[in-house]
Amino acid sequence: MANNIAKKVSWSGEGTPLLNGAEERRYSGQPSGGSMFHIGKMSTVDLEEESVTPEEDPMRRRPSEIPHNEKLLSLKYESLDYDNLENQLFLEEERRMSPMSFRCLEICRWIICGLIGVLTGSIAFFIDILVENLAGLKYDVIKEYIDKFTEAGGLSISLILWAVLNSAFVMLGAFIVAFIEPIAAGSGIPQIKCYLNGVKIPRVVRLKTLVVKVWGVIFSVVGGLAVGKEGPMIHSGAVVAAGVSQGRSTSLKKDFKIFEYFRRDTEKRDFVSAGAAAGVSAAFGAPVGGVLFSLEEGASFWNQMLTWRIFFASMISTFTLNNFLSFYKQKPGELSSPGLINFGTFDSEHVQYSLYEFPLFICMGAIGGILGAVFNTLNYWLTIFRIRYVHRRCLQVMEAMLVAAVTATVSFAMIYFSTDCQPLKKGSPEEYPLQLFCADGEYNAMATAFFNTPEKSVRSLFHSPPGTYNPQTLGLFTLTYFLLACWTYGLTVSAGVFIPSLLIGAAWGRLFGILLPIIFSTKNSVWADPGKYALMGAAAQLGGIVRMTLSLTVILVEATGSVTYGLPIMLVLMTAKIVGDYFIEGLYDVHIKLQSVPFLHWEAPATSHWLTAREVMSSPVTCFNRVEKVGTIVDVLSATSTNHNGFPVIMQASSSDEPGKLCGLILRSQLIVLLKHKVFVERVRSRLCRRRLQLKDFRDAYPRFPPIQSIHVSQDERECMMDLTEFMNPTPYTVPEETSLPRVFKLFRALGLRHLVVVDDQNRVMGLVTRKDLARYHLGKHGLEELDLAHP
Amino acid sequence: MANNIAKKVSWSGEGTPLLNGAEERRYSGQPSGGSMFHIGKMSTVDLEEESVTPEEDPMRRRPSEIPHNEKLLSLKYESLDYDNLENQLFLEEERRMSPMSFRCLEICRWIICGLIGVLTGSIAFFIDILVENLAGLKYDVIKEYIDKFTEAGGLSISLILWAVLNSAFVMLGAFIVAFIEPIAAGSGIPQIKCYLNGVKIPRVVRLKTLVVKVWGVIFSVVGGLAVGKEGPMIHSGAVVAAGVSQGRSTSLKKDFKIFEYFRRDTEKRDFVSAGAAAGVSAAFGAPVGGVLFSLEEGASFWNQMLTWRIFFASMISTFTLNNFLSFYKQKPGELSSPGLINFGTFDSEHVQYSLYEFPLFICMGAIGGILGAVFNTLNYWLTIFRIRYVHRRCLQVMEAMLVAAVTATVSFAMIYFSTDCQPLKKGSPEEYPLQLFCADGEYNAMATAFFNTPEKSVRSLFHSPPGTYNPQTLGLFTLTYFLLACWTYGLTVSAGVFIPSLLIGAAWGRLFGILLPIIFSTKNSVWADPGKYALMGAAAQLGGIVRMTLSLTVILVEATGSVTYGLPIMLVLMTAKIVGDYFIEGLYDVHIKLQSVPFLHWEAPATSHWLTAREVMSSPVTCFNRVEKVGTIVDVLSATSTNHNGFPVIMQASSSDEPGKLCGLILRSQLIVLLKHKVFVERVRSRLCRRRLQLKDFRDAYPRFPPIQSIHVSQDERECMMDLTEFMNPTPYTVPEETSLPRVFKLFRALGLRHLVVVDDQNRVMGLVTRKDLARYHLGKHGLEELDLAHP
Fold first, then answer.
1. Residues A739-749: pLDDT tens digits?
2. Please, which residues have CB within 8 angstroms of residue A331's CB and are 6 or more apart in sequence?
3. CA of B568 to nearest chain A CA: how many angstroms apart?
4. Closest chain A residue by Cα to residue B607
5. Model pTM?
6. Chain B environment of A651 (Cβ under 8 Å)
């Protein structure tokens, strides 16, 4: 049944023609029913084409499973409709609304954003309190045992206790993720990136995901893994936003009958971006950084009022967290903890930097870029290994427990063999100072870094006075923590990579700062403070791993609470990004690619002006007539080989060979609602027994439209007709066949389209461009490359 | 010869039909030459139409001059092409380029942004130094005279000296603006807003404008007007960017032959937005605020890499200024002055605020909104008065001088009659303490506010200890400065409104803070510091006047150097905006409207779903054939009654009555270059004596394309043909006639279009939508309103 046309395009300037397994590339259409229309003819102006069946060319046959590499795009991901479906129903509703009702909607949007902020802040507070208390309990118990056994001998018992406690917590965390909601694994940032980009990731913004995420992150952080609780806040905020804005919970089967107007992808996306921003804001105390994060990741949809609302949600979120924490700490009104992580205040006398330090910063950026690339490459291999061999749930839980035990063991060993004793000062930041084999009144410096929550270790690296750590401690810590963090990311636990990255970077940054005066053998007062270099190292390492730029700068600036470091942080992040990008993409992008998500970047690849809509589009296209037989529609929707989601609606062609003129576009989800409500016209007596369908019916079904299999259509009903005029979008965006790929891409990306109809100069449907058709092209090492499409 | 079709649309839900002077509304076409095509038929599905000649309806006749109200859109403003002209030449060039050359371009963009930052920072430094020194000189001289005459009597001599000195400086400033470059008047922010929006404001980014702007702002600030030097920095940065990015100066007739790729509107706009951000950054030491300003004002063009470059330019700009200032102050390396204005550091013990203060902040926001609305309304009337009666240049200069003299006199009188004496403390922020009639060791508090540059007065209001000002002084100062600032904005001098707004707000905010404990008759420690309320008042007043939201919050947060005040500042700005918007638009928008600029807002008016492309479009459209007679083209371009800039290119219709199929779009500027280079095909011997035109020829002519009158075409040449195929954009964006206005608007705005072709289902040209057609609709008090179009 496949349309076996292999296409060979020879890229000028590259020499070697690229072949692609085109059998999965084109939408295949089943020629059943005369009313469906197929465009068999393909233009051959710019293409050399040849017919190759899969049998003739076994090399290109569709792989039976996803070969876990990034040269494929999965077809299992659908797109979201970020372009409003302007059909007659919608226009009628909009026209009925008075200016006053638009104003009410606007007020509702503000209220929702406020709620998002409050809820996200509360969740952050909840996580923070639970983690702090549980971790405190854990460290207290272990410290007691260690202190007891240090002199008595038999420290291995405390090691076992530590490892078992960690594994137990992590087992809980991994269990709920693996068995209840696997999408809650990881930081959730790649998923939210994809959502804002317009890719529908199943179950990503459900209530269940949120619950699992929150508990998962608590257990994994308390379990002592090399993870942070900040990344998951972004995902949590997004789920909160998606839930609140819809005014109902499908999981809980509770519909509050409010905010019904917002039950569509466009509006929901806007709120989700506010939620993500609120999450960043609560995590780092960085409201502006949150706004920029949302815009950097999502925004083909910048709009002044929307951005302002996003900012509002962010502000409320950090304010809520701050207020709750201040009450919890019994210092009401002292708003000093705007985020989950707080870098502490850098003394104004130490924040100075000079022009001649800039080369050093750039150098640190380069180191961060290289280390980040190493991190990402190791994690890439590890993830491929995991996809291949660790896909059973029990194995996943066991791996997580193993990592927890190993983390405890390695930490213990590092502390045990460390000889870095530091005098215990009054008012030092040590919460759990381990004496171990140090003299009385001293503590083990290695334990400061390992025997603590990562957030506190970061702060200690930033602010401890010079001499707190000796270089060996820092070097060893960097190495082990680097490997642990790399192993940990991608486990089936819910946790983030921000804090481990910061911690690694802070450690080697501080090392760098300590070594500087030694290398240059000068006693320069500017170099005296290693905390500054720890900050730069943290920025470099984080930038090298995640490669965010503007938003990260602002987040770090806001987290330090001072704008003075803006320029050096930016320089460092930029260098890290440039250096890192030379080797491998950012961690999130690596994972998005490994999931074969059809992600659309900001612009079409630079060298893609060779391609036009004609080469890019899918063709032939399954079309419907304006008035279509129900049986045909059911057959098309049921065809499992194809899984089309959008169908151009055409004017009845005079002869069946000629393509029909485009007159609209209708979605699978709309057709399903129509079929469910049996909006049929009987063939004989026109317009009988027909219920007037309203926009509300579509909204009620959103977003979980039933599958076609669940809708029963009798044989009689199959003979009825369905009039699509009222429900289709009568003015879909179209482009001519000669449009260049960058132009198609710009239109698609700027408007957040899902389907773009390609027409000829008679306005006849020639093809359809979808997200997958555009995401397939990317700029590789050897010029433009094309990805293959594969069913999951 | 206008096309006298008056259109009457009755808006459902509104009752009263709106009439518009439609004779200037439609593009009129001259039916000369059979190859030109006119669509005479207009669809009448949704419209009632009637033919009314201007004679029949004198009320609607085109006004002979602009009646200075905001119900008109001027036709004198053209649009910029923010959509790339993808013709064959362009595509060929892009296809010839290797990935490496794209990378080089990217590096060039970064270099340019760095240069923009350095130059903008240097200009800021230059302005700052000159203003400081000249103003210091002036105040020293006057202080000396005042001190001398206070005891000797005859203070009127020092008043006269003050007034004359001020007037002299202001005369210089007003003279160069009025006689050399009137576009340099004001802050330049409305102009840059329009530019980024896509409106071509003549001469706005020229070198001459920059020079006049810089000197103008120096003279007006030194002249003691109630103005700031911050706003103009944004304009200056934009001019720098436009100049640097083009690699040549048309004014200086110097072409460096670099950056030729960037010689088109799209690229230039990107750099101008970076320049504007660099300007904000240098003015307020707010690099993130600068980025957000550019995005808030301009951005239909958000793009990650671009934003990152904008941020880079901003950072470099503030860093340059900071470095230069630190060298100038002989404290190299101490980077403490990131901007022209510096709010100083708020003590961390005073920055506290409590939840119960929020109603107070909201209240202050409301006051700011109301005062801002009063300011804008007064300034609106004043501006109309000025447009009507003060349009001669000498009058403008004289008005500016009058304002300067009055400012000096009023200040003098206020100081003279003030009895608010404060003890002169060691280390107080007073730079020019005036003793006047105070006792020895005391100084006049009113003089602190008036006898100083506004920047220093603002800082004094923020940070002076409680008790420095008494309530009467603050009240009187607010009132007089409010009126002075209102009178000053709109004068023919180059100056900004930011600082005066901040100053007014700080004054009444401080007053508010002082009155609070009195009203509530409590001794609350939180209320003890009036500086906090001064800051909130400043935010409220500025927000009430300019109504910027997100960027202003960030600018103020960055200028205070602490993120703690973020939430209250946002609350205050939001309230001010909501309250102010209820009465009148923001100051910049008022001025944009008074200039009748076709400005496109973020979204189509909420209630505009009634309208479709059919009602909105201009029709009939002047079209060209693919191969067109030179004479026809020259005639169309020369027609003074119409001033079309874009022409759809159509396929030769079979019969001349039927509309032709669209096959491209060509611009006036392209045709002019073609005519200039005589790219003709002789009718008999085809393709003879034809020079191959390159993209370079178009770039060399950009942006000052010669007028058609300057191109001589002989009678023989008129008989030649011109083949437009290679030069037209073969894939213009199109919409069907039924597309709703919001959808058209979204497409137009998101892609930065200049012309959008409306086609029927046969792909035949039915009309053309331009910026003016969309900007005409706005939401008034009584629902949707339509503006008239008028020639200047």
1. 999 999 988 88
2. none
3. 10
4. A99
5. 0.87
6. 761
